[in-house]
From TrEMBL:
Domain Penicillin-binding protein transpeptidase: 362-684
Protein name per UniProt: Penicillin-binding protein 2
Main location: membrane
UniProt-annotated location(s): Cell membrane; Membrane
Topology in the lipid bilayer: Single-pass membrane protein
Keyword Membrane carried by entry: yes
InterPro entries per UniProt: Beta-lactam/transpept, Beta-lactam/transpept-like, PBP_dimer, PBP_dimer_sf, PCN-bd_Tpept
Organism: Sporosarcina gallistercoris
Bias kind Basic and acidic residues: ranges: 725-735
Length: 735
């Protein structure tokens, strides 16, 4: 009986345990299903959030990262002169390129390089020692590993002061250093050719076409590679462009080559603007200043990748576009004639006694009403290193990057500044006489001993130093006492320099070219008040030839300082090579300021300049006598010029520089011009190639204008592309 009850009790316990187990299992299953439900609900919610809320944003981000600007070597914009003559062109040439992706391996590139080496000839001259070492490691991986012992490897890996990257760098350096000369010399000619191709492939960046060969690609090579592109992944045949200059003028500038790429000093600047490291960029003058217009627009493509990152399809988002065409203000035909004039006169003066320091001459001619630079000439004599003979080189950029004392040509500004500060009145007569400041004697060149009464017009035409001295002393609140010490208000330096600056003297002109200087304005020493008198006659501060041209232009046009410029217009690329494309921009005159003088005062100064050319006592009398045009000008001689040329041992030697400024015609000026011939002589009575250059240049301008009018050249409104000008002959080249 007892045994039966025990059995029943045990059975109930077993049944109860099973019930509890089923309940526990049911609870766990329910909890599991609930957890799965919650997780799936969260996942669905997250997917819905990503797709609905963030979907467009992620889609845009994906599209943004896939769109890549590809360097397809679009032609740079061409450069023309004001009449449509071609100055800088692009010459197409065959090219073979390679583009790697982010997933491309070294082994894949090497395989392609070996195939390509069988199809083209690649020079090996650019291979470096480092290239050979890296290539040896790539070809001999097992031998390279043995260059570093296990003990050395273990020591480096256990060095806690080194990061993993630094450890690898140490291993690589040890490996490279231990490659022997014998091993490096073991490369065959065919292997070196593979290396030459491989190094070009490696130097590129992902998705950026890298030029493997663009020089001397034969038609046979181009065709053979084109036929086998399917077996050469990443390789392509295309057209590259070589920049070709039709003019010797340095201000056209230069560009880098694809091998040079972006200069290191400007790398960050250009990369931030979407350039690739191997892009061509302008590196000087017009090519540099107008880079944004000339560069063109790269092709933009969208690369479609698979899961491994391999590009399976490429879609063009935006086609590449050539750069814009630039029309300059320069007149190439006029320029060629003026260059010959400057060169001939420079060489002629160089043959005279006392000319050992003479090595350069400048001429600038511009439209005084618009600021358009018609011609900018700089010539420099240099000794040929090989032959030892003197040759003449282009030094155009010196017209705005070097400065000199300009002598009496500054007297126009001195006179107008005197009017401004009431130091003189219109038509006022002063006595030109030798003056004595302490023990120092100062006089005008035309009057060394007597007393001559002259007015303001005569003072300019005859180039009176004393008249200018008295203006400066009046501005400085000093009443002249013969033999007395010069006690001046030193604020006069600031007043006079501010007056000069309003014309453009001693300040940058605003030319659209890089590298312009403002000249020098030494801080006046209070122990040398006489320097104020030197300033008044152009023998203290220094100015550039371009500043002189802007300065005389302001006088010619009635008092407006206009920024000189070399860009005339911007066009779309020519559609047919015969006519210009659509006009995009016409360069308008930029007035920087109006000088603080009345029209009557400016006219008075212009009469003084007219006196220079047409009155018997003028310093350049008869220069344009009998011509069909009339002109006005001012000559200058600076006796305070100190040599600072290539021979530093001779620095400080006193020389004489000669200058000339003017404009023509007198009533309605079309041109303003400046000439500077620095260090023309060590003699106080120097030759005057400045006047000869000015005379010949102005006559040439009007002769060319007459010839064109008679031939009705450039009479059409639609500009047409003209052949280049033969600068030596001054005639057009035939294409």
């Amino acid at each position: 009986m007892k045994e039966g009850e025990d059995v029943r009790k045990n059975q109930r316990k077993v049944d109860q345990a099973k019930v509890r187990q089923r309940k526990l299992t049911s609870f766990r299953m329910n909890f599991l299903f609930f957890s799965i439900f919650v997780l799936f609900s969260m996942l669905i919610f997250r997917l819905g959030y990503l797709q609905i809320v963030k979907g467009e944003e992620y889609k845009r981000e994906l599209e943004r990262t896939e769109e890549i600007a590809v360097n397809t070597s679009v032609p740079r914009g061409r450069i023309f002169d004001r009449s449509g003559h071609l100055l800088v062109d692009n010459e197409p040439r065959n090219a073979i390129t390679y583009t790697k992706t982010t997933s491309t391996t070294s082994e894949e590139m090497l395989k392609t390089a070996k195939k390509l080496a069988k199809l083209i000839e690649k020079p090996t001259t650019r291979i470096t020692l480092g290239d050979k070492k890296d290539f040896w490691i790539l070809l001999h991986p097992e031998e390279a590993l043995e260059k570093v012992t296990k003990k050395e490897l273990l020591a480096l890996q256990n060095d806690e002061s080194l990061t993993k990257k630094e450890v690898q760098q140490r291993i690589t350096k040890l490996t490279r250093d231990r490659i022997t000369d014998e091993e490096l010399d073991s490369f065959t000619e065919s292997e070196l050719e593979v290396l030459a191709i491989y190094r070009e492939m490696m130097s590129g960046y992902a998705y950026t076409p890298q030029i493997v060969k663009s020089e001397d690609v034969t038609d046979s090579e181009f065709a053979t590679v084109s036929e086998q592109l399917s077996s050469l992944p990443g390789v392509n045949t295309t057209t590259d462009w070589e920049r070709v200059k039709m003019s010797d003028s340095a201000i056209l500038g230069t560009t880098t080559s694809p091998l040079e790429g972006i200069p290191k000093s400007d790398l960050d600047y250009f990369l931030a603007r979407g350039y690739s490291r191997n892009d061509r960029v302008g590196k000087s003058y017009i090519e540099q200043y107008y880079e944004d217009l000339l560069k063109g627009q790269k092709t933009v493509v969208k690369n479609i990748k698979d899961r491994t990152g391999k590009v399976v399809e490429t879609k063009t988002v935006r086609e590449g576009e050539p750069g814009k065409d630039l029309m300059l203000t320069l007149d190439t035909e006029l320029q060629s004639h003026l260059e010959k004039i400057v060169e001939d006169n420079l060489l002629k003066a160089k043959r005279m006694d006392g000319s050992q320091f003479l090595d350069r001459a400048f001429l600038v001619m511009m439209d005084p009403n618009t600021g358009e630079v018609l011609s900018m000439v700089g010539k420099r004599i240099v000794k040929d290193k090989d032959t030892g003979k003197l040759t003449v080189q282009d030094y155009t950029f010196g017209a705005f990057s070097t400065s000199y004392e300009v002598g009496s040509t500054v007297k126009l500004a001195t006179m107008l500044t005197g009017y401004k500060y009431n130091a003189i009145r219109l038509g006022e007569t002063k006595i030109d006489e030798p003056i004595f400041v302490g023990k120092q004697r100062k006089a005008s060149l035309f009057n060394q001993n007597s007393r001559v009464a002259i007015n303001d017009v005569e003072a300019l035409g005859r180039s009176s130093n004393v008249y200018m001295f008295k203006i400066a002393m009046s501005i400085a609140n000093y009443n002249y006492v013969k033999g007395g010490n010069l006690k001046i208000d030193f604020d006069a330096f600031t007043k006079m320099r501010d007056g000069y600056a309003s014309f453009g003297l001693g300040t940058k002109t605003g030319i659209d070219l890089p590298g312009e200087v403002s000249g020098s304005s030494p801080e006046p020493n209070r122990k040398e008040p006489g320097k104020l008198l030197d300033l008044a006659i152009g023998q203290y501060d220094t100015y550039t030839p371009l500043q002189l041209a802007q300065y005389v232009s302001a006088v010619a046009n009635g008092g407006y300082r206009i920024a000189p410029h070399v860009l005339k217009a911007v066009y779309e690329p020519s559609p047919d090579g015969k006519e210009f494309g659509a006009l995009l921009e016409q360069k308008d005159p930029l007035v920087l300021n109006r000088i603080d003088n009345t029209e009557e005062e400016i006219e008075r100064v212009k009469k003084g300049m007219y006196y220079t050319y047409y009155q018997p006592k003028g310093t350049a009398y008869n220069l344009f006598k009998g011509e069909e045009f009339d002109a006005a000008g001012k000559t200058g001689t600076a006796q305070a010029g100190y040599y600072e040329g290539d021979d530093r041992s001779l620095w400080g030697t006193q020389t004489v520089s000669v200058t000339h400024v003017g404009f023509a015609p007198y009533e309605n000026p079309e041109i303003a011009y400046s000439v500077i011939v620095p260090h023309v002589s060590t003699y106080n009575n120097p030759p005057h190639p400045n006047n000869d250059i000015a005379q010949a240049a102005v006559k040439e301008y009007f002769a060319l204008k007459k010839k064109r009018a008679e031939a009705e050249i450039f009479s059409t409104e639609t500009p047409t592309i003209q052949p280049p000008v033969d600068e030596k002959a001054g005639a057009k080249k035939e294409n």
